[in-house]
């Protein structure tokens, strides 16, 4: 009996260490370390301890790995809500667990090569579901680790981010099968290698042959306003004064547009007429339109909004944020989770309903994405379809302190550019503020003398190339992902 106990303890330790290794390799594939090459093998230790197990045991082991990964990767959510962070991590770990069940299910029923492609499709399907179910959480996808691998990620203009996740998972599965067989798998390796070669060739061609049609000169401002100052009514004039001062650095640049971050004017836009006049006077004095963020109020409804101020100082329009953040801007499942209000009172914002497009004239139309909306490819494509020639993002990531969150946010924004071939100008209150071209290249960021990008004050500007042609992804959306769902259904029917 003692021997059995010792064996069980050793097995338990091995399982925990394998889960910890997979979770750790995945975490360091993301910012800040960004050892993106590790993502291609990160899940191999997990797959090894799932090999040949029953569904329930696979569920538990994969859940443990998922919990460890999400706790480390998105633990920064606790700066908004501790309870919400724990619930989110515990919920997201279920997607790893479901993959574990699918892995052992298909392992017993499919041959090697079909199994590789079906299991990669399962991973993509689960990423898609978690990006949309209950408002969705689309961060830290497997494909996001490759955001600097420009040739590879160009496939996203056809498949979305999910095509990149598929490739990374496919290689993980192939490496696992090779380790298990203790020898090279020639046929499977040739097929996977050929697919990656085609994807890289497509990326090289896309970056060299996509037609640029015009350009736009944009400046972004990063005032680095603390949350304490944001909530201090007496500090509002200082906040606007600081932001205006940074804006005036662009006075000799002859820009087409200047972008201020989310909550540039804390509180309701119409409640501070003297400060809104100062903002409008700045736009008029510089003869340059300004996009800035504030709260809009209509009756009892409050909106997280972006205001577009023209060269004559008039407010030409506003956009109300469509996709609200759970636990930050609304409480999901309020009839069930309403008890959280006892610990963290939360008033719900009202979501917007219109995909607004603003014009600078001369085929320089843009849409504003607020907060995390620039990471949602399925949302961004609607703005591109509505006529946006480039995107503007205003955000405030000050909530998450000195964590990896702003860099993860930037990763998602890169893919929205690639998916739709639309450039992006993003102004983040505390960083990372950047200009990104239609192929995902980060052209410039607000950076201090030490190379620091977050919690620094500054501004930057540049010229963004414009592409008017709509991509396959923009026109047809997540066709690749639905093909993955179909692949899974067919595999289940055949098996």
Oligomer: single chain
pLDDT < 50 runs, ≥5 residues: none
Structure summary, number of beta strands: 12
Rg value = 24 Å
Strand count, sense and closure of the main sheet?
6 strands, mixed
- The CATH homologous superfamily of the largest domain is called Carbon-nitrogen hydrolase
Q: What's the domain count? A: 2
What count of helical segments does DSSP give? Answer: 17
Task: Explain the overall architecture.
With 495 residues, the protein is of the alpha/beta class. The chain folds into 2 domains: 2-209 and 478-494, no CATH class; 215-468, Carbon-nitrogen hydrolase (Nitrilase/N-carbamoyl-D-aminoacid amidohydrolase, 4-Layer Sandwich), CATH 3.60.110.10. Helix content is 47%, strand content 14%. The chain has 17 helices and 12 strands. The chain has a 6-stranded mixed β-sheet with strand order 5-4-3-2-1-12. A 6-stranded mixed β-sheet has the order 6-7-8-9-10-11, with helices on one face. α5 (112-132) packs across α17 and α8 (161-181) runs antiparallel to α9. The model has no long low-confidence stretch (mean pLDDT 92).
């Amino acid at each position: 009996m003692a021997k059995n106990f010792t064996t069980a303890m050793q097995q338990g330790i091995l399982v925990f260490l394998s889960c910890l290794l997979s979770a750790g390799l995945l975490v360091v594939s993301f910012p800040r370390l960004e050892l993106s090459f590790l993502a291609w093998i990160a899940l191999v230790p997990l797959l090894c301890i799932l090999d040949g197990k029953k569904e329930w045991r696979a569920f538990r082991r994969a859940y443990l790995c998922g919990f460890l990964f999400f706790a480390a990767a998105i633990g920064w959510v606790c700066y908004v809500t501790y309870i919400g962070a724990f619930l989110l991590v515990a919920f997201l770990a279920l997607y790893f667990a479901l993959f574990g069940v699918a892995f052992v299910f298909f392992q017993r029923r499919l041959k090697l090569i079909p199994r590789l492609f079906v299991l990669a499709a399962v991973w993509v399907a689960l990423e898609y579901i978690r990006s949309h179910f209950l408002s969705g959480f689309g961060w830290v996808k497997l494909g996001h680790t490759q955001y600097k691998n420009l040739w590879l990620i160009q496939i996203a203009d056809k498949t979305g981010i999910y095509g990149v996740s598929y490739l990374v998972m496919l290689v993980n599965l192939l490496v696992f099968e090779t380790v298990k067989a203790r020898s090279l798998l020639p046929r499977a390796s040739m097929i996977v290698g050929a697919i990656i070669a085609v994807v890289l060739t497509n990326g090289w061609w896309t970056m060299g042959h996509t037609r640029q049609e015009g350009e736009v000169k944009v400046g972004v401002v990063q005032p680095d306003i603390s949350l304490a100052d944001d909530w201090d009514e007496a500090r509002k004039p200082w906040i606007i004064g600081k932001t205006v001062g940074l804006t005036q650095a662009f006075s000799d640049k002859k820009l087409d547009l200047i972008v201020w971050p989310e909550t540039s004017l804390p509180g309701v836009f119409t409640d501070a007429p003297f400060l809104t006049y100062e903002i409008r006077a700045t736009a008029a004095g510089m003869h340059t339109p300004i996009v800035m963020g504030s709260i809009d109020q209509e009756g009892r409804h409050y909106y997280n909004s972006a205001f577009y101020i023209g060269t004559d100082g008039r407010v030409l329009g506003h956009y109300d944020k469509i996709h609200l953040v759970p636990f930050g801007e609304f409480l999901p499942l309020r009839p069930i989770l309403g008890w959280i209000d006892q610990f963290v009172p939360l008033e719900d914002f009202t979501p917007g309903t219109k995909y607004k497009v603003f014009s600078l004239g001369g085929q320089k139309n843009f849409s504003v994405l607020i907060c995390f909306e620039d990471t949602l490819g399925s949302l961004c494509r609607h703005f591109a379809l509505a006529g946006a020639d480039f995107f503007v993002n205003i955000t405030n990531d000050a909530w998450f302190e000195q964590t990896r969150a702003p860099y993860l946010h930037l990763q998602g924004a890169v893919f929205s550019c690639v998916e739709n071939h639309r450039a992006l100008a993003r102004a983040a209150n505390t960083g990372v503020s950047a200009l990104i071209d239609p192929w995902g290249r980060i052209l410039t960021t607000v950076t201090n003398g030490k190379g620091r990008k977050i919690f620094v004050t500054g501004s930057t500007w540049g010229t963004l190339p414009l592409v008017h042609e709509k991509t396959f992804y923009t026109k047809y959306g997540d066709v690749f992902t639905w093909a993955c769902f179909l692949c899974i259904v067919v595999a289940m029917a055949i098996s």
